[in-house]
Amino acid sequence: MNGRQGWFDVWQAKGKRALAEGRSPGLRDLVALSGYDSPTSALDLNQYDRQLRHIVDSLAIGPDDHVYEVGCGAGALLWSLQNLCAGVGGSDYAPALVEIAAMVLDTDDLAVLEAREVPVEPRYDVVVSNGVFVYFPDAEYAWDVTERMAAKARRAVGIFDVNDLATREEHRAVRGAAYGHNAVRTEIGQLYLDRAGFVELAGRLGMTCVIEDSVMTGSANARFRYNVLMFHTGGRPR
Ligand SMILES: C[S@@+](CC[C@H](N)C(=O)[O-])C[C@H]1O[C@@H](n2cnc3c(N)ncnc32)[C@H](O)[C@@H]1O
């Protein structure tokens, strides 16, 4: 199965099942729709809250900021962020998930889009992507999206939960053991990226770059993932 189409089908099917249930989603449902109920990333809401706090603090998101998310899914992260900032916008390639996001988010800027097609305008103070880069087809796609996010951001970019190329084989073994017979998911595969690639790209774009280990310690995936923070001149929190 083609990796890109395979993951698209997984996410779109999740959204369709939720829409068929026909009830209005709460945060727990939104978090499950983001995949944080799988064998390798089962999280309780406290863990998700820790991730939210980390995103807000590391990017110094404040009440005057407008925040955009690439790959926003059903809107779990933006739903929490919209109460902490001036406004949110987002996009995702799965139409069923965007339909749910439209029910729970207070924004006019929601669209069904491939991450690589996200328009640079309108620009936002902060542009984030949480748990999305692992589903991209290849590194070239990931660098293109990063560059686009940097152009869309006035101040800062945050890319959270990237698979670390340095620990790929160990992570694959953990995932294989966790999924066992569920061949489809392991077959589709995930993308692993070199930390140095982000540092080099940020340098080329004239941005500063900080890379940190994942804070989602309740997830089996966390040990193998990192977060990327990139700041335009003057955009770095003190
Ligand atoms: C783990 S979920 C995270 C959802 C959301 N970012 C959050 O934190 O709640 C991954 C999301 O990435 C989206 N996605 C994966 N590949 C994508 C792509 N190439 N373009 C746009 N969205 C993509 C999926 O549809 C899914 O909603």
UniProtKB/TrEMBL annotation:
A single GO BP: methylation
Domain Methyltransferase type stretches: 69-147
Entries under CDD domains matching the protein: AdoMet_MTases
Gene3D superfamilies: Vaccinia Virus protein VP39
Signal peptide: none
The UniProt record lists the keyword Methyltransferase: yes
Source taxon at top rank: Bacteria
GO molecular function term, any single one: methyltransferase activity
InterPro entries: Methyltransf_12, SAM-dependent_MTases_sf
Name of the protein: Methyltransferase domain-containing protein
Organism of provenance: Jiangella rhizosphaerae
